[in-house]
Amino acid sequence: MDIYKQNRVGQASRGKGKILSQNPAEETRYVKRIGRDVTNTKKETRFQWFFQRAEMPDGQYDPETGTGLLCIEELSKKDKGIYRAMVSDDRGEDDTILDLTGDALDAIFTELGRIGALSATPLKIQGTEEGIRIFSKVKYYNVEYMKTTWFHKDRRLESGDRIRVGTTLDEIWLHILDPKDSDKGKYTLEIAAGKEARQLSTDLSGQAFDDAMAEHQRLKGLPDVATIMEDKTLCLTCVISGDPTPEISWLKNDQPVTFLDRYHMEVRGTEVTITIEKVNSDDSGRYGVFVKNKYGSETGQVTISVFKHGDEPKELKSM
User: Fold this and answer.
1) Which helix (H) or strand (E) holds 104?
2) Looking at the record, which segments are called Disordered (predicted)?
3) Beta strand pairing status for 225-229 and 296-307?
4) What is the pLDDT of residues 3-21, one digit of tens each?
5) What is 18-101's CATH topology?
6) How far apart are CA 35 and CA 1, in angstroms?
7) The pTM is what?
8) Which of 53, 208, 232, 301 is the one with CA 20 to 30 A from 26?
9) CATH 2.60.40.10 placement within the chain
């Protein structure tokens, strides 16, 4: 049996008993593929996949090429066990077994961790409502087989009152809350996988610090209620990202928005914008965008108050 790693364009590299290394610049998705080539088959020959003695209906078999294939996406420890490929017909049966436990599984996760570390993008700096965020995107992250450490001016950082560190399946981040001048300087992320380690650094000073602080102050000052004069055009924009790509729903007063007549939605890359032409008092209300994928969901909200010509803008007392 062989294990493969497949990239998004469908090309596969093959190696006996392990997942091969990958150019970190490529766009990849990690899939464990267990395959077996079968010869001397007949039309009636049956090919079956088993895991822990239970048949796996998702297994594939191509009678023309004699290739049986089982793909497991998002490999985790629940996939630990014994895999069996069996062919059978009126002449009898034959099988092959792969023991994916112990060192074999550890070796796969270690290799995936190494590939994930190599895939890490250069550190980026982002101003947020709470402070300044420094992060790197990765194609894969496993908390059991990959370790991360942050440093500021070569001093190791830990989560505390003003510092937050964390990871997701595709991101490693550091969040500095209520940033101060003392937070300026060089930041380094160390990613360790097995015996290998990779370091990424960025300088949070000068223009980089000023730009992040300006964005932080801008976001920190955003109102919960926005006002607009009737007959104007209202645009609400949010930036959305995720893998898999999230589903997007716009709501008004907790009800789905119908995009007809004056209401329009436009998607440009990661930016999603709702536009309302010639607003009137009926357009006042609480607007929200709801996004979700299989890893979770988030909601962003703002209250819009439409005022008439000649009136002073007022915040809505209630919705």
Assistant:
1) helix 102-118
2) 1-21
3) parallel
4) 332 322 222 222 233 222 2
5) Immunoglobulin-like (2.60.40)
6) 6
7) 0.53
8) 208
9) 18-101, 119-215, 217-307
